[in-house]
Amino acid sequence: MRKILLLVASLGLVSVVVAAQHVNTNEKTVKSDLTVPADVMVGTTMLKAGEYKIACDREMITFADHDTGKVALKVECKGKELREPSKITSLYVATDASGTRRIQKLLVKGSTIEHVFQ
Fold first, then answer.
1. Given this model, what pLDDT does residue 26 score?
2. Mean of pLDDT values over 32-53
3. What secondary structure does DSSP assign to the chain, as a single string?
4. Residue 91: what pLDDT?
5. Suppose 110 and one of 30, 56, 61, 80 were both cysteines; which one would form an S-S bond, judging by CB atoms 3.0 to 4.6 Å apart?
6. pLDDT at 49 over 60
7. Are 100 and 94 within 8 A, CB to CB?
8. 31: which strand partners?
């Protein structure tokens, strides 16, 4: 009996940890256009400057070429939930110590998630 209770408690703890990593159960699927003015790192992948159509389906964010629709990058959707949907699509970029430009966060118009990349 004690082992069963320990197992149930462990599973409950694992569920809480997994949910804390990305709580976006209220997020709607969103799509938007995005201009990337210069090459920038998204996590460990370089995203070239250009026009993109972005889409977030609660699990993945897809960056597709605006003209051809070819997927340039697909990354895991992570981030905290915002109080209200973003009114505009905004890209926040910072330069790290090595001089590399990295996306810090992305707000997508209509999304309630502050998307972050690592």
1. 57
2. 94
3. -HHHHHHHHHHHHHHHHHHHH---TTPPPEEEEEEE-S-EEETTEEE-SEEEEEEE-SSEEEEEETTT--EEEEEE--EEEPSS-BSS-EEEEEE-TTS-EEEEEEE-BT--EEEE--
4. 93
5. 30
6. yes
7. no
8. 55
pLDDT 10s digits, 75-108: 998 889 999 999 999 999 999 999 999 999 999 9
Read off the pTM.
0.74
Beta-strand relationship, 45-47 and 101-107:
unpaired
Phi, psi of 15 (to 5 degrees): -60, -40
The residue written with tokens 């959707």 in the block is: 77
Residues 81, 57: Cα–Cα separation, whole Å = 15
What are the tokens at 117?
């990349």
